[in-house]
Amino acid sequence: MTDSISVPASVPDPELLQALRTAGRFAADLRWSDLPAEVQARTGLMLVDLLGVTVAGARTAELKALQRAWPVVEGPAVLLGTGRSTQPDTAAWLNGAAACCLELDEGNKHAAGHPAAHVVFAALAQAGASEQPVPGVELLAAVVAGYEIASRFGRATRRRADLHTHGHWGATGAGAAVGRLRGLTAEQVAASTDAAAGLVYATPWSVVLAGSFVRNLWAAGSNVSGLVGGRLAEAGLSGVEGTVGRTLGEVVGGLDVSPLADGLGQRWDLTGGYVKRHSSCSYTHPAADAVLTLLERHELRPDAVDRMVVATHRLSMPLAAVSTGSRLAAMFSLPYVMAVALRAGVVGPGELSDAWRTDPEVIAAAHRVQVVHDPALDARLPDERAARVTLVLRDGRELVEEVPNPVGDVGHHPFTAEQVHAKVAALVGADDARRVRRTVEALADTPDVRPLLRKLP
């Protein structure tokens, strides 16, 4: 005889069920032509940035190794950066991993994470696998609906402090986008959203900081969860059951229902996203920007700096250790990012190579970075993710710069379309950047995205 634990079944919150149905109606009814011009323009810019970053990620040594180890069976869904097409789930897995592996993908500070990376690859895979033509406006509407719903769940989730932001709340948006593209009813789209949220991942910060590549599969897995959620809903095997309340609300942390329908269809979170300048966790960006500003303003050489002090908010404190064991570990090490910014004047994919991560001078500079918590900066979250950097020079001077948000934030030196295009060109080359841009620009006018998507690099 074995001991057993009795777990009482929780009763779904009626307000949560209503919020899910509101989200389902929003996703099912949204029309691209009804969206404000600002939302349409930002959607295109977001897609150019994300697809370009994904193509670049797919060409890294890590993703090439993963592609060789993964059974890639020919199919209808585009596998970015490879010139191949594969089955929908495989495409969602590998495209999602490629999007995350360089830490250059779009994010949203209000959602406290990356809605697009959790939604877009499910939508692309579902559209590519459709047996019927998929007008470009349908794909675009599904992406916007999925982004907005994912972002609301990001706002609503009170994530445990030991969990990373990938792999859980974003699945809601993937489920909504897939449900929309499968032509489901509003009730079924809500069921798809709820079911996808039942397939969430345990995402410990400790795994990220240890530099484990598995972290790059968490957002990818949410895209796959969206595909599965749509299938379950269409098969009649899931309903609006409040599953998300048990996963996000109990396993991941807590769930505040009130933000879920807040401004849905009136306030567009997608227009508040940020574009990433540096190939590192966004929490490191304000400090890196501050270093670059001080170096330029005072015409300093790196050797003039003796040490650096970074005052930051609580969300950045897990990144305070020097860590260079892998590309991922280094991208989540604030001292390493600071050292690279100081010595290279840029924090790009090249500065995360083995050569840079083992360079004695870079490592020594990283060990001369002190990271301190300033509670006053906590009070400015999430509108500002501020950092204050003090450069202590060898001649005894101290130079201070405070940055309220990363460069690329919509409220702080936002990227123009030209800057996004230049970023993508630097990552994948001018020709492939042009292919990405032209494909995205053609979406709204195409009667069927399936052949168009195959033109992506």
Automatic annotation (TrEMBL):
Highest rank taxon of the organism: Bacteria
All copies of domain MmgE/PrpD C-terminal, residue ranges: 278-441
Name of protein: MmgE/PrpD family protein
Residues covered by the MmgE/PrpD N-terminal domain: 25-241
Family: Belongs to the PrpD family.
InterPro entries the UniProt entry points to: MmgE/PrpD_sf, MmgE/PrpD_sf_1, MmgE/PrpD_sf_2, MmgE_PrpD, MmgE_PrpD_C, MmgE_PrpD_N
Organism: Rhodococcus antarcticus
